[in-house]
Amino acid sequence: MRILLVEDDAVLLDIIQRSLSDGGMRLDCANDLAIARHLWAAHSFDAVVLDLNLPVNTEGHRGSGLDLLRVMRRQGDSTPVLILTARNRTDERIAGLDAGADDYLGKPFELAELSARLRALVRRRQGSIDRVVVGGLCFDRSQRRVYLNEVEMILPAREFDVLCELLSPPGRTVSKKDLADKLSDFADMLTDNALEAFISRLRKKLVGSGASIRTLRGMGYRVEEESA
Questions:
Q1: 0.85 surpassed by pTM
Q2: Which of the two ends of the chain, N or C, has the fewest CB atoms closer than 10 A to its terminal CB?
Q3: How far apart are CA 78 and CA 198, in angstroms?
Q4: d(C-alpha 139, C-alpha 134), whole Å
Q5: Which tens digit of pLDDT belongs to each residue from 202-223?
């Protein structure tokens, strides 16, 4: 899951980044509106965490995250957005939701609640659920666990993330570009060769499980249940 975090408080940004990263999310971070606008337009995200009162640039002028949200919505961007702000009055929450936000969390907040709300937003958008079964493969997204024929299989973080994207929701075809984009961040871009290596290793580990990763030429990859 790739998240754009827009927050100008350096301490809070670092705390959120560490917490969400420990939960298996990949984050790109922006501390002003210019950087946020650039990242949001250039990359594909599963969700955006957006503060409201933000610097416009390094000169310290302030602007509203709602303006950025309105611009992205007018451009047809439907990425789920959770507004995270100290502005927690009812009229301000209404303004955020009317601007196109999907959820609203006032400061102070619990990190566990932020993580849970993000997972819920992404589930609603993708139509996916936390626990997926394909053949003898059981994938538990919330617990970050994978079972093959009822035996837990420990996957490296990147292989887990690849499988997670392919199963969100199960049965969909995911292009190589979309996979690479969702599994990269600003400082660590996933190459085609690296992605193919992860797919190859996962295929070997799924042998005998009744689930396999199929390549659809020119389209991407899909997890399927093998026919008997």
A1: no
A2: C
A3: 29
A4: 8
A5: 999 999 899 999 999 889 999 9
